[in-house]
Specification:
six-stranded mixed beta barrel; binds iron/sulfur cluster
Length: about 700
């Protein structure tokens, strides 16, 4: 009831990359309810998470004091561990003691073994300012570039392809541009579930006549709005896209004027795809040649067309190749740089774009400036007054490998939960257990915190000021709406205290000080100031003037590559790393649900969301259940070469036969115990979307 609220505070949703603007209604320092505001990406709309996902800041298991592990307490994920009562494993500490112990452990490992003995995972759940400070601490305090975050599990392959082909990892146009497009391809994404408010823009576009083409192995909610749906064989993405390119090349549907003016390498691409006809590729793709020809023609002959993709594209060992193909489609047809055209990898986490921009990436400094570039390094060395390492750091999964082989001995993990989110969890958890010193900063004693030596109570998004950047490149301001509980502290403050204990002379008094420093190292923030964001709430980068809204569509004249031209990057179909066989005949794929967010630490503590989706389920096609002689709700056992979980079944008519889908938010049936850690060689992203498994009655 809005009449009983004490106050309202304007902010941004902490969940997905859509970045919906919202208004908290506050009573007695608690969030009474939330409503949508008229932000550029949501027009007053919110999905169920944005509306009902705010019990977590005041949840009874919220961490409110610093913790130090008790001598001899076992490390590991214990199903009986109660995060609200962690006292069997941890004791309460003062901030002074916890910070001293946290920093001393890291410093002494660095002194004994060198900078490469330490690594840090930052978080896309935190603000841009916190991401900036975290990577700055690792680079200037730890002394290496071993810093990464969940982009590595999400769109790293998309970014690798975009950087290679068009010189920029961000989207070329916002999702609002779909309403200007004649044709929109949605592939490997399920926006109605994962980007629900973006999905409303696609549905509105379809209502106004935009032809939606859904390319996905699974049937899905957007299919109901689609002009055409192609449900192709899991893992055959490159074959499908090359066949579409073949149609565009052999039927001369490409835009020669655009290609001549803006690209290089088209002749090689033409030769490369010449023999990959739809007729040849149809079998492996599991769709007809005619259907491939039709969608290729629809996309190529549209006046304006866009491609959106998600983790169905990126989370493969050929994820970078998948994205290269999509970029080639857009370049061949001249579908970038104008309203209603573009390439848009839909970002997962609310600030994964911003955290990446701010430098939580091991091979690049903020704004994707290579650490190996002497000029880049020298500019940051001058800004930070510290020498920097010239070697690219290790990525998320590589860091865990280095932990396992004993090279990395100490870690600082802020707001990430690799004990739930990494592939092949038994191995990842075993590695966490071998760390000599682990500092975890979070809201709860998560599965990862159960391995920590020190746990630092951090800030929930409604408890702090900060900026975040959504999938559309819109930089937006979140404001503090409620006080921190107990002794919990803002993340930026905690990182600064650790930095001081590394001898770094940091003296920030508010996130706006950090933002001011970011502007000195990040040209992408030109013309965007904290004061503007306080006034306007949202500014898109790149922004070309002090009062303009920023560029919704980019690269109309030139690309930010060395030649100013975009590049075609031909690709060859590759099989999944672990093809199905007689022993493991079913494809396991993982992802999210509408109601739950990533590893579930926030949404599973929201009463309404937990009421809606209370327990772990595996989705199977009706025919698959019949084959197993099972009913929906029966227990099922899923086994891969790496492990086994048991959970309930759910019938899903959108699932293809021969595939099972499991969300990764359920600790009691952690599907990442089963997933394949094999990496895409370019983006270093694991193959979450395809593992060979066996499904049995439990
Ligand atoms: Fe939040 Fe995304 Fe839902 Fe918007 S669509 S309310 S940003 S979770």
């Amino acid at each position: 009831d809005s009449r009983s609220a004490d106050s309202t505070v304007d902010s941004v949703c902490p969940y997905c990359g859509v970045g919906c603007q919202l208004r908290y209604h506050i009573k007695d320092d608690e969030i009474l309810f939330v409503e949508g505001r008229d932000g550029p990406s949501n027009h007053n709309r919110l999905c169920v998470k944005g509306r009902f996902g705010f019990d977590y800041p005041r949840h009874s298991s919220r961490l409110t004091v610093p913790l130090i592990r008790r001598e001899g307490a076992p490390k590991g994920v214990d199903p009986d561990f109660d995060p609200a009562q962690p006292w069997s494993h941890f004791r309460e500490a003062t901030w002074e003691e916890a910070l001293d112990r946290a920093a001393q452990g890291l410093v002494s490992l660095k002194n004994a073994h060198g900078p490469n003995a330490l690594a840090g995972f930052g978080s896309a759940k935190c603000s841009n300012e916190e991401a900036w400070l975290f990577q700055k601490l690792v680079r200037t305090g730890f002394g290496s570039n071993h810093v990464d975050h969940c982009t590595r599990l999400c769109h790293a392959s998309s970014v690798a392809a975009l950087m290679e082909c068009i010189g920029s990892g961000a989207v070329t146009a916002s999702f609002m541009q779909a309403q200007q497009a004649d044709v929109v391809i949605l592939t490997g994404c399920n926006p109605a579930i994962n980007h629900p408010v973006a999905a409303t823009f696609f549905k509105q576009a379809a209502k106004q006549g935009t032809k939606l083409i859904v390319l996905d192995p699974r049937g899905q909610a957007m299919g109901a709005h689609a002009y055409r749906t192609l449900r192709f064989t899991p893992g055959s993405d490159v074959s499908l896209f090359n066949a579409m390119l073949n149609v565009i090349v052999t039927e001369e549907l490409y835009d020669q004027a655009y290609i001549d003016a803006h690209t290089e390498g088209f002749e090689a691409l033409k030769a490369h795809v010449w023999d990959m006809t739809p007729e040849i590729m149809a079998d492996s793709c599991g769709v007809s040649a005619d259907a491939i020809r039709e969608v290729a023609r629809l996309y190529a002959t549209a006046d304006n067309a866009m491609i959106f993709w998600g983790m169905g594209i990126s989370q493969h060992t050929h994820g970078t190749d998948n994205a290269r193909c999509l970029i080639s489609l857009a370049l061949a047809c001249g579908h970038t740089g104008r309203p209603g055209t573009g390439l848009h990898p839909l970002r997962g986490q609310n600030n994964v774009q911003g955290a990446s921009d701010a430098g939580l990436i091991p091979m690049v400094m903020p704004d994707y400036q290579p650490v190996s570039d002497a000029q880049v390094r020298s500019a940051f060395e001058e800004l930070w007054n510290t020498p920097l390492d010239d070697k690219p750091g290790l990525t998320v999964v590589e860091i865990m490998e280095a932990v396992r082989d004993g090279t990395i001995k100490g870690m600082y993990i802020q707001g990430e939960n690799p004990a739930m989110s990494d592939p092949d969890l038994d191995h990842a958890r075993a590695a966490l257990g071998t760390l000599e010193h682990l500092v975890v900063q979070d809201l709860f004693v998560t599965e990862t915190a159960q391995f920590a030596d020190i746990v630092l109570p951090a800030s929930a998004w409604p408890e702090k000021d900060g900026t975040v950047t959504n999938t559309n490149r819109q930089v937006q301001l979140g404001r503090q709406a409620m006080p921190l509980p107990g002794q919990a502290k803002p993340d930026w403050w905690i990182i600064q205290e650790i930095a001081k204990r590394f001898g770094l002379p940091w003296d920030y008094s508010h996130p706006r000080d950090v933002f001011a420093e970011m502007k000195r190292g990040m040209p992408s923030l030109d013309h965007i100031t904290w004061e503007r964001l306080e006034r306007e709430g949202s500014v898109t980068y790149p922004c070309l003037s002090d009062d303009g809204p920023g560029e919704d569509v980019v690269f109309s004249e030139t690309f930010p590559t060395t030649t100013g031209r975009a590049k075609f990057s031909p690709t060859l179909p590759l099989p999944p790393d672990e093809p199905i066989d007689a022993e493991y005949p079913t494809v396991l794929t993982t992802g999210r649900q509408l109601e739950h967010w990533h590893t579930g630490s926030m949404t599973r503590r929201a009463r309404v969301l937990d009421d809606l989706e209370p327990e772990a389920v595996a989705s199977l096609a009706p025919g698959e259940l019949r084959r197993l002689d099972m009913q929906p709700g029966d227990p099922i056992s899923i086994t891969t070469r790496r492990g086994n979980i048991t959970l309930k079944t759910r019938v899903d008519t959108g699932m293809p036969e021969g595939m099972v889908f499991v969300p990764f938010c359920y600790a009691e049936a952690a599907v990442n115990l089963l997933t394949n850690p094999a990496l895409d060689p370019y983006g270093k992203i694991p193959e979450f979307k395809y593992a060979a498994c066996r499904v049995d009655k439990a």
